[in-house]
Amino acid sequence: MFNIRTLNNVSAEGLKRLPADQYTVGDDVEAPHGILLRSYKMHDMEFGPELEAVARAGAGVNNIPIDRLADLGIPVFNAPGANANAVKELVIGGMLMAARNLAAAWEYTQQLEGEGDALSKQVEAGKKQFVGYELPGRTLGVIGLGAIGVQVANAGLSLGMKVIGYDAKISVERAWQLQSGVEQARSLDDLLSRSDMVTLHVPLLDATRALISADGIAKMPEGSVLLNFARDPIVDEDAAMASLDSGHLGAYVTDFPNRKVLGNPKVIALPHLGASTHQAEINCAIMVADNMRDYLEHGNIRYSVNYPEAQMSRNPGSHRITVANKNVPNMVGQISTQLAEAGLNIEDLLNKSRGDYAYTIVDVNGATPGSLLEEIRAIPGVIRVRSLGSAG
């Protein structure tokens, strides 16, 4: 029986993926084997020895201590792509709001008084203040071509825009999904200098903090629009506000309001609506619940942010062991030696690494005694060992 603790309200459709005869799920579950959450800040949490997996029903994981959990041998799962359509639609909405001055026009209309001809005259007089432009023919720059960025880029083409994309580490899977009309930028500066609208779809990392700097904003064409539906620290917002005030940057659309940007008439700030649709919440919850369950029951890792992808089918009758370890030489050799000394034959093996960490799945032809697991745990560099029993 697995205990799963929820730290936020997670869609019931996702929780249904954890069968009641195998899982106890709730916000008051003690000694959890797994934690499911959305935006709860976990950095100050202590983790018991029972904890084996953490899963966020969303894409961003800056509220989770992923490095500390990696050191404990605990994979952190997220849901990249599950909310991609929701964010894509909001980006398109932000583009239209900026191009057609919709936020300012709405605010103006809310202040109108009177009725009949008097009201009509105010409407006609006011609309001249909000003349905008159409999207076809404009250039959209998409920074980050993951699940969301690819959908935004393809949508830009469908709107009749010229689209430039930049991603130094685009995956083969995403490259296949990208429409051929999307042009590859030579560099970040190349994209910024040629884009009327720039939209960000990269994770918040040390390397992406203040990715859009004062120098980068200065390279953007006069009157251009910057859209941030990624994370607010990715933009140097002091530089963005200064550029708006000088008249160089035309508008800043952000899903992350703060005192620095609120009140500026050229800022369109939304209350973090990116994934706030019922469909996205359901999709994210189902995706992470399925992946957590596959890990807890079979040791497979899919869509983890701190451990490598590792998936291996199970053969009936085999017994599975998984090992999380530091990425050091001869780890597989030492594990194999311990198995051989215990008289177990390896039926299948998968070893994957990611940065400082590695993960091994081993299927053997017999049950694994506790003494063997302790011997594997004693190997220098091993972080966590799990025995998942027979495949049936």
Note the topology:
Layout: E1 2-6, H1 12-15, E2 23-26, E3 34-37, E4 53-56, H2 66-71, E5 76-77, H3 84-99, H4 102-110, H5 116-126, E6 139-143, H6 147-158, E7 162-166, H7 172-177, E8 183-184, H8 188-194, E9 197-200, H9 214-219, E10 225-228, H10 237-246, E11 251-254, E12 267-269, H11 278-298, E13 319-326, H12 331-341, E14 346-354, E15 357-364, H13 370-377, E16 382-390
Parallel strand pairs: 1-2, 1-3, 3-4, 4-5, 6-7, 6-9, 7-8, 9-10, 10-11, 11-12
Antiparallel strand pairs: 13-15, 13-16, 14-15
Describe the structure.
The structure is a single chain. The model has no long low-confidence stretch (mean pLDDT 95). Helix 3 (84-99) crosses helix 6. Strands 8-7-6-9-10-11-12 form a 7-stranded parallel β-sheet, sandwiched between helices. The protein has a 5-stranded parallel β-sheet with strand order 2-1-3-4-5. 32% of the residues lie in helices and 20% in strands. Strand 4, helix 2 and strand 5 (76-77) form a beta-alpha-beta unit. It folds into 3 domains: 1-82 and 277-307, NAD(P)-binding Rossmann-like Domain (Rossmann fold, 3-Layer(aba) Sandwich), CATH 3.40.50.720; 84-269, Rossmann fold (3-Layer(aba) Sandwich), CATH 3.40.50; 312-392, ACT domain (Alpha-Beta Plaits), CATH 3.30.70. The radius of gyration is 25 Å and the shape is elongated. It has helices at residues 12-15, 66-71, 84-99, 102-110, 116-126, 147-158, 172-177, 188-194, 214-219, 237-246, 278-298, 331-341, 370-377; strands at 2-6, 23-26, 34-37, 53-56, 76-77, 139-143, 162-166, 183-184, 197-200, 225-228, 251-254, 267-269, 319-326, 346-354, 357-364, 382-390. It is built from 13 helices and 16 strands. The chain has 392 residues and is α/β, with parallel strands linked by helices. The two termini are 17 Å apart.
